[in-house]
Amino acid sequence: MQRFDNARDAALTLRPDDPVYCFRPEVLKADARRFMGLFPGKTAYAVKTNGEPMVLKALAEAGIEAFDVASPAEFEAVRAASPRAEMLYMHPVKAQSDIRLALETYGIRVIAVDHEDEITKLSRVVQALDIDPGTIIVFVRIQTKGSAAYELSKKFGAGPAHAVELLRRLDRNGYKVGLCFHVGSQIADPETYERALRSADWVRNRAAVPLAGLDVGGGFPAEYGHDPNRKAPELPSLEELMARLRADLDEWAFMDMPLVAEPGRVICAHAFSLIVRVMLRKGRRLYINDGIWSSLSDSWTGKITLPARFIPDPAIRSRNGDKSKIVPFKVCGATCDSVDILSRPFWLPETVDTGDWIEIGHIGAYSMSLRTRFNGFYPDTFVEVTTPFEQGGAPESFASLETMA
Ligand SMILES: *Cc1c(COP(=O)(O)O)cnc(C)c1O
């Protein structure tokens, strides 16, 4: 991979027409170590956030020894990056053949369920393979109510009484049992974890079976940019959030059991920026070479404002407008799909023109993992960059990716 000091150097050297992901492995490792230093248990990186081999490898080098996986492709990616890493198969709804693959081929012994039919599938595989259920920890996923930017409890999780039943059934069948939840992504309110811990405590007391662990899931927020025309969102820092979580874990007496967290976004968001090129400027509209079907997928980045840096093409000799004036541009994506328009503007100097580049910061989470091959556009160029995004001078602009929803 080619290395550059910063994205501007990469853009001006390569003059890329395709989007370029700027990978900062040292930022990734530092953010992983920061999380591990703050969380009083095992850190299992959520592979879906960004499962690129370079990411998994750098995380293994940083000391991440466990990975939250959900599919055979993720088992394989983790195994390729780190032969010794532990995998936690935390998808509550699984194909029986995938459970078999997990247990038989990948030696996975930690698994999540939220329904009795999932226990049936698991038990069929355990019997067929003649595995002692006592060597498997089954985490029962409980429903939580949260205030995350992305709420996930509508989809997964057993209600408290149901979770009690599942724990007892698993315990009777000889499994080790734990409790897990996932409060959603980019959570803003520290109370969210506390509420989940309170339900976990209720379930534990009712079930009255020994617990082998508690998994608090992911959801830890990454710092992004903000729109200067709006009130800055009040986000607790990771240090504050973690201090609160540690105090809550202590208060609800979970500190004496093995703890797991499954961070995704907070670990990899800052490790990448993205260089996009302006294919065409048409008035206050920019057509860029990325979009909602590539790295700017609305489904996950939908409520986030990303910092952006203008990289003017020095080959453009004459420009119209005032370069110190920052104005909103409507941004159209690369595909021919009419929905491929970001519904919130990018704010850029008035002088931006066809051929210029824009570096979008903090794009490491839920970007390249969600890109599609729609219309034949599939950004897949990577360079390594050494300077962290924030150290490259204040970004003069920002890309707000918020959509209709
Ligand atoms: C997506 C997911 C995560 C990671 O979430 P982040 O908000 O990126 O930290 C963790 N656990 C589970 C079960 C998930 O589905």
Automatic annotation (TrEMBL):
Entry annotation: catalytic residues: C336 (proton donor)
SUPFAM superfamilies registered for this protein in UniProt: Alanine racemase C-terminal domain-like (SSF50621), PLP-binding barrel (SSF51419)
Example GO BP: putrescine biosynthetic process from arginine, via ornithine
Modified residues (N6-(pyridoxal phosphate)lysine): K48
Swiss-Prot/TrEMBL keywords: Lyase, Pyridoxal phosphate
Domain Orn/DAP/Arg decarboxylase 2 N-terminal, chain residue ranges per copy: 34-269
GO cellular component, one term: cytoplasm
Sample GO molecular function, one term: ornithine decarboxylase activity
Keyword Lyase: yes
Keyword Transcription regulation included in the entry's annotation: no
Top-rank taxon: Bacteria
One Pfam assignment: Orn_DAP_Arg_deC
Required cofactor names: pyridoxal 5'-phosphate
Domain called Orn/DAP/Arg decarboxylase 2 C-terminal: residue spans: 270-362
Transmembrane portions of the chain: none
Membership in a protein family: Belongs to the Orn/Lys/Arg decarboxylase class-II family.
PANTHER family assigned: ARGININE/DIAMINOPIMELATE/ORNITHINE DECARBOXYLASE (PTHR11482), ORNITHINE DECARBOXYLASE 1-RELATED (PTHR11482:SF6)
UniProt name for this protein: Ornithine decarboxylase
Organism annotation: Nitratireductor arenosus
